[in-house]
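Please describe our next protein:
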Amino acid sequence: MERDNRDEDIMMRGTKQEMPGFRFRLLRPEKKRELWNPDFELLFLLRGRGRVSYEDGEVHNLPMGSIFAINRFQICDLDLDEDGLALSLCVSAETIASFHIKLLKCEVKCQSFFYMEDQQEKFDLIRRDMARIFLEMYKNNEEQPIYMKSRVTALLEDLLSYFTSGEKVEQGRGGRERIQQASDYILQHCREEITLEDMADHLYLSRAYISRSFPQYFGVSFREYVTQVRLAHAVQEMHSGATLTEIAYHNGFVNETAMIRAFRKYRGMTPSEYRKQMEYTVKQREKKGKEREEAAGDHDIFQSLLQYAAVTEQEIETTNESAVSVTVAVNGRKPRVAGHWKRVINAGYAASVLNREVQDELEQLVQELGYELVRVKGILDDDMCVFRRNMWGEIQFCWNYIDEVIDFILSTGAKPLLEFGHMPLLLAKTDPGRTMRPALSSSPRDLAEWRMLIKNLMEHLRERYGINQMRRWIFNPWISGDVITIDGGDEFFETWKASYEEMKRVSPDLVTCLSFGLGPEEHLKAFIETMKEKECVPEIFAFRSFGTVIYGEEEEKMNLIQNNESINMIVSRDPDFLRNRGEKVKGLLQKAGLGALPVLVDECSSNIWQRDLCNDTCYKAAWLFKNLLENEEALQGIAYFSVNDRLDEVFPARETYHGGFGLFTMNGIPKAVCTALRLLGRMGSRLVKRGDGYFISTEPEKNQSQIYLYNYVHYDMLYRYRHAVNISRTDRYRVFNMGEIRTFSVKLTGLEPGKYCLRLYKVTKEHGSSYDAWVRMGAPERMNRMERAMLCHSADPEYRVWEQETDPEGSLTVQERLEPHETALIEVEQIL
């Protein structure tokens, strides 16, 4: 059997910079574990059942939750049921020696399957140690490897204290390398006739040395080792439909009888009995309705281990603190704050804007924050009732709902940004059926009919609103460019260009936009090149940013948990994804000779997952501060997606806090991210300084300054791959990297000497987060009107006010301490 060290099995590996010499692997039934390993290995059965046998041939049954050690060079054959899954932690001899040299000289006898349930206390310690090492690794705590070392030390100490017996002789490195060469030769040639003479000639070793070394290292003779390797291969083929004779000859046994004899010796049963046991296991699983589904079956695979970590939310909140000191002069000439973050707000689908609650929320935000544009998508979706054929097959149009949407947007004082999509069913070439919504990303069956639809709509808009009004709007002629993955680039640009031409016929002065979706950089590059080649250059280029990348684009070894509610993409490990993506877009446009095009983010959020429970928490407030404040000048618009949780792309959730995209819940309760957005609306018109975790503005005419602070912490690796083992409806803060408390000290100079009033607005779990207030309320599934009103009030931030005097030179220092995910605004205003 070949040693299975393929990269896809390795989930995480220590590096020289962090913790060298150990790795985690997921072991599945279809990927057979090697018979021996030069490393020390600890295995935990995450799911299902299995069997293990050592060099003595005795077979032991493994229930779920079993944990056991495999010593270096110890022969151990692991056989998992079809739905079985095990987690392996391998630790090299060098790593063990750096902690406990004594452990290398001892045999570790840690085998939980020998003991009853009420005798598992010592094994629970090892389960806890393994779980905590795993937790520390996926927290990506690369800057503080001391935590990882302490976790590994704790594991080795517990193994040494509770599970070691007498010392054994440690062999030299040269002997280990030679015996590994011998073992590798057997693994490669086990299906052939292997003799001591052949191997001695091949490896330039003596027969006597090889014969003596196998019992010394593996505890079995050379011939017994060959037999066990062949048997391991044969066991794998027992899952096939091959006959016993075929399996025997295919795996190097001289005949079927020799294989049966090996089965009896090392498995305690005949091959036929083994097959019957397999069939019984499958039938029992089917009877209980536990057929394995790869998409959903891995959802909680680590929960069985992590429950032993005994880590509470309070325990993982680090006590590490850092200080940020800023000194800045507020007087003098300052550049204007670009304020591009409040140019556009996403209303979601056009049909949602017909909802009165959504209208109220939009009106609040436009009036309070001064948004210039309200973006709506899906104005041509079938639920907008724009296109039909009558009984005689004649085409008919109706613009009533589109008029209602536009009329409402204009009534708020904003202007519409209209995305012309999706394709009406009666015009669609194909029906991808991706979401519940009547939103087809298909190209038209008949381009002439599509042109007729756009032409009639544009003429209607000109007649109703006038061309002067329309010149102030933005039109996106077709949906975002990720449709290329469905229909191909040619058809996408053909549809976009047809709409574009009909719009420009109404008036060449109309402002158009072209949007790229969520594809990787090479798709983006091809998209821009094709856009230029096909003469589809708009007045504004847009892209979407949900912080996600294609699975496999970033070199991490972790399985993505797929679901049927969102695109199969992972959250990037890059906390500055939006900024870096924007720079790539502008760089590619520059290379294409289109560097003058304004760049807009027409949809922006932290995750493409529509059930990301973190969307409801304080995390999203810190994410908003970070991404809007750090990019408000670099991009010509950042349109947060979306106002309300009502999207209807998946089934509506019964739970109020279900992790939707919205600033408001479906029943109109503002979330922490909404509170943060409102605080941004108090920003001054001049930029004083920005940096890591802070943004300072001023309003010179009013003698006011605004200090924005945030402590952002990114998702951890497990959650970025949608492993939801550490999150629940009432506990949502254990899926992030290890953060730290940050104390900001901001010294403002250049002030008019005198007394100032300072006002603090702060979003924390205790204040400004309606989700956390809902948890404290008892997390009711159904809420009455009074409870909803209480939660609306709980979205108000923490508020403190005090007076402070400058020193004679006009300097004033403000300090504030932020836990992870907290945000704050401190207003400084002179008292006249």
